Amino acid sequence: MKKVFGLIFIIAMLSACEQQVSDKPAVKAPSAEDITLATKPVIEKTPIKILLVYQVQEPGVDPYKSRIIVTDKFIRLDDNNDGRDFVLVNRADKIVYSVSEDNDSILVVKHRPVDMKSPIELFPETVRKPDENAPKIDGRDLVHYIFKINGEACQDATIAEGLLTEATEAIAEYRQILAGQHATTFKSTPADLQNACDMAMHIFQPDRYLKFGLPVEERDYTGYQRSLIDFDDDYEVNPALFILPTEFEQFSIDELQAPDKEATPNKA
Asked: Based on the domain organization, do 21 and 141 belong to the same domain?
């Protein structure tokens, strides 16, 4: 595993010439401000090329591996293979594409703001439990967190504080895009099926736990859990993994909820 967070500095050097007396107008000497601006470092951002691999366990499902690839422009989530069943996030456009090879289709989720208020008041509580004897990952402390809503433990995570912040920011973006769609779908959920943890985790506080760092172990109230088993912050990215199948039909959940409205298929 590699750790490359270096910045490239390019410094422009100034050379001074002695001012000569002549009939020509005198050349104005650079001011202190000019020199400061000219010598200010120009920073090139190091490209983001991060790989995360998790071992996932869901109730009633055999354990499987989940891969997350993060770049400046995209996020790809899949079952640790290069197949055509994957989720692609266009970070600039804030669009999520869920690609299904079985159906030759792509579900498109565009970012929309959460335009609703919680039907019940949500009281978040965060319990932080540092452990001085816990091992470090890449020099980062591991801290146990419990995230509660209205007294109920919704998520439980061991977090490497400050590790791979670019990855946590990207995953937070992904969850924020989905939050708007979850909010739209939630409006038709019967009151007796509404759950405070579910509302907080998926709609009103979707990135809450990511603000503390990268989870290396996590579980939630549904029984879902996953463990980080590998990561690389200088991953050799294959650009082909971020290309949508052009022959697959694209559709949105809004189109599915309005079957009487004729939808025009989109192409990637």
From this structure: no
The residues, any chain, with a CB within 8 Å of residue 108's CB and separated by 6 or more, are 95, 96, 97, 250, 251, 252, 266
Q: Are residues 136 and 227 located together in one domain of the fold?
A: yes
Pair (25, 101) in one structural domain:
no
CA–CA gap between residue 22 and residue 218 (Å, rounded): 76
Q: Please state the pTM of the whole predicted model.
A: 0.78
Domain count of the chain? Answer: 2
Distance (Å, whole) CA 166 – CA 47: 10
Token pair for residue 31? 């001011």
How does pLDDT run across 245-265, given as a tens digit for each residue? 999 999 998 777 665 545 444
Can you tell me which residue has the tokens 């996030």? Answer: 89
- DSSP states of 201-248 as a string? IIIISTTTGGGG-EEEEEEETTS-EEEEEEEETT----GGGG---TTS
Share the mean pLDDT of the chain. Answer: 83
Q: Give the domain range for residue 247.
A: 47-268
In a domain, 36, yes or no: yes
Q: How far is CA 165 from CA 48, 106, 210, 212, in A?
A: 11, 29, 9, 9
